[in-house]
Amino acid sequence: MSSLLELTLGIMTALGGFVDVGELVFAVQAGAKFGYLLLWAVVLGTVGIILFGEMSGRIAAVRQEPVFNVMRTELGYGLGLVVLVASVLVNLLTCAAEIGGVAVVLQLLAGTGFRVMVAAAAALLLVTVFFSPFRLIERVFGLLGLTLLVYLVAALVEGPDWGRVWHGLVPHMPEPGQPGLPVYLYYATGLLSSIMMPYEVYFYSSGAIEEDWTPKDVAADKLTAGFGFTLGGILTMALIAVGAMVYLPQGIDPQRLGTSVLAATTLLGRWGSYLALAGIFFAVAGAAVETALAGGYSVAQFFSLPWGKSRKAIEVPTFTVTWILVIVLGAGVALSGLNPVTVVEFSVVFAIVVLPFTYYPILRMAGNRKLMGEHVNSRVARVLGWLYLVLIAVVALAAVPLMIVTHMGEG
Asked: Would you give the distance in Å from CA 410 to the centre of its chain?
């Protein structure tokens, strides 16, 4: 049973990384615009995050070094500091979007004003993170977030066109009547980036150290990363399928979080909406927790300061103050009234610019036999890692121009 519970680190990381407020609308929107044609991007991103997530966990288990320790070592202080600042800003924007998403769910349940719900969401997150140990956080958000499986059930109950599903697993040009190639590439880039968000490996590797992983846990790392991130990928594919089945035939472009709930209601009725709301709440709140803690982990680790949820707040002041500030400032951004989906789309696009600088140090250290010994990257992991790094670099160069040219996917 304890081994099964360890999987919750992978589940929470995956649900918070794959199925956050942006993905809940972004993936449904991709299905509404292109049907099943972008499923290949989810598969590509899922394999990539399993690859680098497993590496970061293995480094943490063998070397007891989280990502930002590795980054400072491999990139040097100057470039590492630039990446740190960029990463914290991305975490802040993402956390703001997640707090806004939690507020939207609370608003749908209570009918109270949005700004009141933002304040309530921020207060709830602050209290939860401050008073809860790491193991409780990962298990509550990881396990209860599994109610998002309602979207997989909805997709299977409705019965997708399996021929179109298989067709979408291989890249194809947009079809007649669909938005053009630039919009298609924007959504492919966005899906890949949102699946491989940097904060996922910051949180995952730090969580491995919080859980006291040792070299004996390398096999568990493979299972945890493989299972958790695969689950996130399957859920993202289900969201695309739901968008293709519910909104594409009607020509509707879903722009709000509530439309994702409506999709579950359309396919499964009232209980579908209840389960969707529960899943969205715990997945989005989990993502807010991940991004806040990832901010604290990053700053403390880069400057070699004490950190960890397993320690008293007074023992890790920089770590504690940083994650609190990420939530408070994120709530401030959410209170500005910006659409959470718009905020998270900006964070996803800018995050991909940080990706090469996040994954290059991980790939370097995981492939260093002097440091990793028998746990060094296999030949397959090494080749795949470098291929993905080249792909990520190309996508990073294209992300901002695509956002500008397509007006954030509007065409």
From this structure: 23
Domain extent at residue 156: 2-405
How many angstroms from the chain centroid is the CA of residue 282? Answer: 13
Q: What number of CA atoms fall less than 13 Å from residue 252's CA on the CB side? A: 17
Q: Cα 247 to the chain's mean position, in Å?
A: 24
By C-alpha distance, which of 232, 291, 284 is closest to 258?
Answer: 284
- Put residue 376 in one of left, alpha, beta given phi > 0 → left and psi -120 to 50 → alpha: beta
Instruction: Please say whether the beta carbons of 211 and 135 come within 8 A.
Output: yes
In this structure, is residue 257 part of a structural domain?
yes
Whether residue 115 lies inside any domain: the answer is yes
User: Rounded to the nearest 5°, which phi and psi values hold at 159?
Assistant: 80, 90
For residue 180, the domain's CATH number is 1.20.1740.10
- 111: phi > 0 → left, psi -120 to 50 → alpha, else beta; which? left
Question: Tens digits of per-residue pLDDT, 79-133?
Answer: 889 989 999 998 999 899 899 989 988 888 887 888 999 999 999 999 999 998 8
Taking the C-alpha atoms of residue 330 and residue 122, their distance in angstroms, rounded to an integer, is: 8
CB atoms within 10 A of CB 390: 10
Q: Is residue 208 part of a domain?
A: yes
pLDDT tens for each residue of 174-194: 988 888 899 999 999 988 888
- Residue 401 and residue 399: Cα distance in Å, rounded? 6
Contact 193, 44 (CB under 8 A): no
Q: Report yes or no on 411 lying in a domain.
A: no
Read off the DSSP letter of residue 315: G
What is the number of structural domains in the chain? Answer: 1
